Amino acid sequence: MTQSPLSPELSPSDRTRHRRLREQGSKDRGALDSLLAAGFMCHVGVIVDGHPMVVPTVYGADDLHLYFHGSVASRSLVAAPEATVCVTVTHVDGLVLARSVFEHGANYRSAMIYGTPRVVVDPEEKLSGLRCLTEQATPGQWDYARRPNRKELAATTLLALSLAEASVKIRTGDPDDGEGPDAELGLWAGTVPLVTTFGEPRPDAGLAPGIITPPHVLDRTGTRLG
Amino acid sequence: MTQSPLSPELSPSDRTRHRRLREQGSKDRGALDSLLAAGFMCHVGVIVDGHPMVVPTVYGADDLHLYFHGSVASRSLVAAPEATVCVTVTHVDGLVLARSVFEHGANYRSAMIYGTPRVVVDPEEKLSGLRCLTEQATPGQWDYARRPNRKELAATTLLALSLAEASVKIRTGDPDDGEGPDAELGLWAGTVPLVTTFGEPRPDAGLAPGIITPPHVLDRTGTRLG
């Protein structure tokens, strides 16, 4: 499947325009790509019976699409196949501790992607989408594990959401009250970073003796997510 | 404010019934409480102009409510003050690497809370809600930082969402294909834990010399979130 990258600039619609003051919106396509590449868990927002529902699930992203399992949106899709979803991917980078409670918050990077997900039916795209999803969480795993057979492929509903309508918000750095009168209070202010790290792989309890942890899994130990 | 705890059993509505197979739904009120206590970031799902929108934001939870800033839902609230939101709090505990791609997934704990958020107008509840929000992320900070003044309180829209309609889903442990024919493939399977840890506090660049990091912030270093 040949894929040409999208425009280097995101094109926020009215839905993706930034309304808050302290966070910075980014129109940089690269910011979206690196944000998506840095994680594997998203929150999918759908409307079910007239109410919003927000479901966490794993995703995979390539240049054009975000892939996720249809099960999370199945009721919504059945009820309204043309309905929009909003998929949000967030990395929390730390706490922002200001002099005043009013200026407290968090440093984070977040992407929101809007669109109508397409059910992937082409078997080749389905395989490449599942590969994308598998490799996103664990690079090297697609070539290691047993790939889906025909029955499993048929039992899997894979959704593809275009990255065309996306928005990125990033909050970084110090609190915002360092130059106002509160700076005279003599209070400590700053940030407390949050770091997410992969730990040591834990073998399945039923693993036969002699099966070694493959290098691509072992190498993950101690590396950062996000 | 005296608050009696809710029923020890969650009461899932049709919206909060579990539909997937491998995750375990919990009806235990304690599971919800500990899940909420273990984080400070949630994803708020609202309907804006007929479309779902999922926004990350900080929260605070007490026995009865989840508090969050109204700014994230403001457009939605103005358009439909009686509208339902769905707030989801997720802790990702690790990767689940099975023998077959089909059984791959993540270990996680997730809570979904449905309801119509109430704008907190009573000044005393507003202060106690903001305290809850501040202490959730950084215990000890409410007594350390400068508290909101009248002007700041007026400028803050605080929402309270009842915890009465909530649902918890937890996926833990080994992959699910350890007893089937795939166990004979000789492939490694297991889990890779993900741990989120607070790092060393970073003083604001503009901090006057001699201001020490307060113990309640310093003590966070190296502790786990989630």
Question: How would you characterize this protein structure?
Answer:
The structure is a homodimer of 226-residue chains. By secondary structure, chain A is α+β, with helices and mostly antiparallel strands. Chain A folds into two domains: 14-179 and 189-194, Pnp Oxidase, Chain A (Roll); 195-226, no CATH class. Chain A is built from five helices and twelve strands. The first copy, chain A, has helices at residues 29-37, 74-79, 123-137, 150-155, 215-218, and strands at 24-26, 41-48, 51-61, 65-69, 85-97, 105-115, 118-119, 158-162, 165-171, 190-198, 202-203, 224-225. In chain A, strands 1, 2, 3, 4, 5, 6, 7, 8, 9, 10 and 12 form an eleven-stranded antiparallel sheet that branches. The radius of gyration of chain A is 21 Å and the shape is globular. The two termini of chain A are 28 Å apart. Strand 10 of chain A pairs antiparallel with strand 10 of chain B.
